[in-house]
Amino acid sequence: MVIHFHQPVGNFGFVIDKITDKCYEPFLDVIAAFPDIKFNLHYSGSLLEWFKRYRPSMMDKIKCLAAKGQIELVGGGFYEPILSVLPPEDAKGQIEMLSGFIKKEFNSKVSGCWLAERVWQQHLAEIFSDVGIRYLMLDQIHLKYAGLKGKDLYGYYVTEENTKTVSVFGADKFLRYSIPFMPVEKTLNYFRKIKKDYNARVVSYGDDGEKFGAWPDTHMLVYKKKWLNNFLKTLRKNTSWLQTATISEYMDNNPPSGSIYLPDASYQEMNEWSLPSDALARLRVLQKQLKEKKSARLMEEFLRGGVWKNFFVKYPESNHVHKRTLSVSHKITKLNLQVSGADAAQLKRARKELYKAHCNCAYWHGIFWRHISLSSAQLSISTL
């Protein structure tokens, strides 16, 4: 289980404070009562910085769980950037920044990466390898796009670029919709089903942590009605055939299912949102026709929609901000070879501001973030 927690650069403090009370802190309190249930937790650097400044008790709770070995902390880009659209030196810098922060604050070594919005391009394999990333979590749809089907999805695969490798797990789609919204027993029945039908040895779940208390009505469901507590109790009762593990633990004891190359893709909705509006309308017509012919499975596997970078075509204001960040990045790289002393310290600060402007929430419309994110990115760039 990989749970991802993030708040965008520039979000209002009172918003993060409320979400911490309703979601982030109660989640840690509940899982702490089940030390035998393992989790992989990813916190973006922007959220961890906020915890450190305003809610240090959260840092203490995370550190305690990590020290006990109940959680594995997952890395990624510090300010939750779309890594595939950054210059390689910036992508590596963002990952190393978060890995270094986790090592310093929690005394934990980072082996994995949460890929923001699951935007994958093959060259990322080399970048991850260069900065010591061993694995990442994508969606099962990424694996299906590469031609895999049902029985092949329950394991992990090794992909490479220029002989540099990283392992890929596919997050199960059913679990993303069932947790925490369906009764616990339905999720347990699904585990039984894939074990029986596919002889599945492992199933991966990866999703947003805000579903555990911050989404509408979920605080009541997850904590007041005790969905999370009941889910963990159920896992504990079924340990004769169902165990939890951190990803590193699983990889240490189980070989990969094989090798794979993945096409450029994000999750299905993101692929579709990136299309021009008229192209998306044509795609909807085709999807409807295929559904009427009961070809929904083939539609999912072979109709990918667009690619994430076309958000820069669809939304010129996003393209403008992105290209400004590239310009600033090139200037910082050039200056890095020329400065020292006090100027080097200033350049380090400039680089951090640049990294803040990479925060992905500013660059695509989605359905979650407000315009404050775009304003934050523009502000970060203007300070340079």
List the SSEs and their pairings.
Elements: E1 2-5, H1 13-32, E2 39-43, H2 45-54, H3 56-67, E3 71-76, H4 88-106, E4 112-114, H5 124-130, E5 135-139, H6 140-145, E6 156-161, E7 164-171, H7 173-178, H8 184-198, E8 206-208, H9 218-224, H10 227-237, H11 247-253, E9 258-259, H12 268-273, H13 277-292, H14 296-302, H15 311-314, H16 316-336, H17 342-357, H18 372-382
Parallel strand pairs: 1-2, 1-8, 2-3, 3-4, 4-5, 5-7, 6-9
Antiparallel strand pairs: 6-7
Helix pairs in contact: 1-3, 2-3, 16-17, 16-18, 17-18
Feature tags:
single chain, 384 residues, 7-stranded beta/alpha barrel, 3 domains, nine-stranded mixed β-sheet, 9 strands, globular
Number of domains: 3
CATH topology of the largest domain: 7-stranded beta/alpha barrel
Radius of gyration of CA atoms, rounded to a whole number: 21 Å
The CATH first-level class of the largest domain comes to Alpha Beta
- Kindly, what is the distance between the CA atoms of the first and last residues, rounded to a whole number of angstroms? 39 Å
Overall mean pLDDT: 92
| Sheet of most strands | 9 strands, mixed
- Which architecture of the largest domain per CATH? Alpha-Beta Barrel
Shape: globular
Bin the strand percentage: 5-15%
Question: What structural class results from the helix and strand content?
Answer: alpha/beta
Q: Find the count of extended strands (DSSP E, 2+ residues).
A: 9
